[in-house]
Write a structure and sequence with these properties.
The chain is of the alpha/beta class. The protein folds into two domains: 28 residues; 189 residues, Glycoside hydrolase/deacetylase (TIM Barrel). Helix content is 55%, strand content 12%. The strands form two sheets. Strands 1, 2, 3, 6, 7 and 8 form a six-stranded parallel β-sheet that branches. Strands 4-5 form a two-stranded parallel ribbon. Helix 1 crosses helix 2 and helix 3 packs parallel to helix 9. The protein starts with a helix and ends with a helix.
Length: 233
């Protein structure tokens, strides 16, 4: 093959790669249901629910700084809203009555494992998740809806969740409730409240102060709030 032929093939390859990138960006921007569905087909974490029902989900990450959960539960009951609480097994052991109250109020339960997941290998994570699922079930009687984590060590987390038959979920929008005040959190939520989005909160004092406003703003946009399990199917 001469130099001219190699250059032509190289440029054709670049053109094809650019075309694939453009198509992928177009699909992800204009047809988010396709990307969400493909994620389910080929495997991988669920980061977004299916669009078309004017719904978002709220999920609270409960492992640290959970000072305001009781007040958050009161607000949710007053607003007649059910959400997801993602708890660690260790938190569940240390807060058994509060976990039972969360379940009695009709909220969904998910797990992050027993605690901080530092020894990230397949067998360790599998045993950790199994232990957390059993611990939560024994305390409150609820089946864990899914496994929540971030995207680090994604392939290991996805493989373990797949073997255990549970979904591995991240989030569409993290409100970062330990940063800023209640108004900051409300503004982030308003920006992130789009059909099908999974919105993550941490049960901080600022999140508690923002929660009524978050719920009311989502309702004003014509959307309902559901637990994450209902939005991901």
């Amino acid at each position: 093959m001469n130099k001219k032929s190699r250059n032509i093939k190289y440029h054709h390859l670049i053109d094809i790669m650019l075309l694939v990138l453009i198509v992928a960006l177009y699909i992800s921007t204009n047809y988010p249901n396709v990307t969400a569905t493909m994620g389910r087909i080929i495997g991988g974490p669920v980061y977004k629910g299916i669009k078309g029902n004017n719904r978002v989900s709220l999920q609270f990450e409960v492992s640290w700084n959970a000072e305001s959960i009781e007040e958050i539960l009161k607000i949710l009951k007053e607003q007649n809203i059910n959400v997801t609480f993602i708890v660690t097994g260790n938190w569940a052991k240390n807060n058994q009555n509060l976990l039972k109250r969360i379940v009695l109020d009709g909220h969904e339960i998910a797990t992050m494992g027993m605690g901080a997941q530092e020894k990230m290998n397949y067998s360790w994570l599998k045993n950790d998740l199994i232990e957390s699922i059993k611990e939560i079930k024994n305390i409150c009687g609820a089946d864990v809806a899914f496994y929540y984590s971030d995207e680090e060590n994604l392939s290991i987390k996805n493989a373990v969740a797949d073997e255990l038959g549970i979904k591995y979920v991240i989030c569409t929008v993290d409100l970062k409730c330990a940063e800023g005040n209640a108004e900051d959190i409300k503004n982030r939520a308003l920006f992130g409240a789009s059909d099908g989005n999974i919105i993550l909160l941490q049960p901080t004092s600022s999140a508690k102060d923002a929660l009524d406003g978050i719920i009311n703003n989502i309702k004003k946009k014509g959307m309902s709030i559901v637990p994450t399990g209902k939005i991901i199917g």
